Amino acid sequence: MKHRIVVLGAGYAGAFAAGNLARRLSPADTEITVVNAVPEFVERMRLHQLAIGQAVPFRPLADVFAGTGVRLRVARVTGIDPGRRTVSVSGEEGDDELTYDTLLYALGSSVADHGVPGVAEHAFDVTGRSSALRLREHLAGLGEDGTVLVVGEGLTGIETATEFAESRPDLSVALAARGEPGDWLSPKARLHLHQAFDRLGITVHEHTRIEAVEPTRAIAADGTSIPADATVWAAGFAVHPIAAAAGLEVTETGRIVVDPTMRSVSHPDVYAAGDSAYAIGENGRPLPMSCASAGFTNMQATAAIIARLTGGEAPVTGLKYYGNHISLGRRDAIFQMVDGDARSKRWYLGGRTAARLKSGVLKGAGWGIAHPTFGMPKRRRRLGTAAERAGVRAAA
């Protein structure tokens, strides 16, 4: 009987992992199923571009996995039963239950409203395709002198504010930060960031905690009212409570606690990767939620799964976080390296060179998704595609 691997989520971590597993495991011995809520791969790192009206390609997952032997199930995950090793899903094909021998949990994260009144009802976000498209439609309806407030001084907040200000100079863009934006950057990089804010005309409200969101304004903790025809909430991420509800050992925030091989410390048949995994880097600190972390954790998880199934010893690689790469519109960016203690180094790269480097990173990630098996022999992929088509004809 084939070993059944179920991958939950086809974002950066899940899609890469599924392709890697398909390339390195024999289809005669394993069956790989990917479950994803939408039929396309979503380039989350570019959703702020989509929201402001730029063209962002979306790759159908059916095309991505064509010929690889990976089975795609477009459905929402509604529950996990680790005792029975089943996953409950709901989609166009109806409610169903999938059985696994190995589960790779890579459901990612969504926006965290932190219980702030009005966020769910009135704010927008750029953590998913549907929410980015909703914001895109709203912004398209704003005329000159429209006001946009981005809440959050992290990477998503900075990239969103600068992208919006560059693409729509007719809008008045502001950023609300609980502290100082970029306070983790080196002094020169921080200066570069604030010069970009000034160049783009972004109003920065430092040391401002937003405590309520209304349809046309946001209210700060000190009572200040900040006008906003659109409030974009970028004040952190939250993971889905499914893992906690299933009884997996999780942190207070719901992230799955894993060992150095990305294996759940409470359930040995479950692995986690991406934002859902609480993984400790080689500096002894938890990896941040990021695309880079998704790459490290999915490679470690797939290597461990493959070793387990082929009788090898699961390798453990150092999970090192190298730094932050921040877009400041299309023609400017900051690349900030960090040391082993996650402190910013004095050196940084900025300007057009950094922007071109960030563009290359995005294109590389896109290429990787379009080629999920990373060099699976073309003949094997062609044979797989032909077999899939024959199966469709036979079913018809």
Based on the coordinates given, report the CATH architecture of the largest domain.
3-Layer(bba) Sandwich
For the report, how would you describe the main beta sheet? 7 strands, mixed
In terms of DSSP E residues, the strand content is: 25-35%
Number of domains: 2
| Arrangement of strands in the largest sheet | 7-6-5-2-1-8-19
- The whole-number mean of residue pLDDT values reads 89
- Please identify the top-level CATH class of the largest domain: Alpha Beta
What is the name of the CATH topology of the largest domain? FAD/NAD(P)-binding domain
Proportion of helical residues: 25-40%
Report on the structure:
- The protein has helices at residues 12-24, 47-51, 61-64, 119-122, 129-140, 155-167, 187-200, 242-245, 291-310, 352-370, 378-395; strands at 3-8, 30-36, 40-41, 59-60, 71-81, 86-91, 94-99, 102-105, 109-111, 147-151, 172-176, 203-205, 210-214, 217-220, 225-227, 230-233, 237-239, 256-257, 270-272, 277-278, 323-327, 333-338, 344-350.
- With 396 residues, it is α/β, with parallel strands linked by helices.
- The protein folds into two domains: 3-108 and 240-322 and 371-393, FAD/NAD(P)-binding domain (3-Layer(bba) Sandwich), CATH 3.50.50.100; 111-233, FAD/NAD(P)-binding domain (3-Layer(bba) Sandwich), CATH 3.50.50.60.
- The strands form seven sheets. It has a seven-stranded mixed β-sheet with strand order 7-6-5-2-1-8-19.
- Helix 1 (12-24) packs parallel to helix 9.
- The model is unreliable at 377-396 (pLDDT under 50).
